[in-house]
Amino acid sequence: MPQADAVHAACVEISGLGSADLAGVEVPALNTDVATGWGIETVFAVGDADRPLARIPQALAGERLCHTGLRPDNLLIADNDATVIDWNWVCSGPPWADFVCL
Hints:
Elements: H1 2-15, H2 30-37, H3 41-44, H4 56-59, E1 64-66, E2 75-78, E3 81-84, E4 91-93, H5 97-101
Antiparallel strand pairs: 1-4, 2-3
């Protein structure tokens, strides 16, 4: 599966970059964006800290670059090489975030 290997390599390369590598670009934090910008906060706002969603701020914390929108239409694959396009939702987060999103 050379295409899958190419996408995996692209994800590894992205996860190796920190948000500080984008000098002059403001990169929001994924954990804050998800916890307060996606409406999820209403699910755990009742104060039940044992709910899995209440752990979003800690689980999605990180300083690695995250595309957060990886899917087939944001990947150009040619000659067993994958190029990631459409960086509208770049964030900082854990290194595994794009693997899970994909």
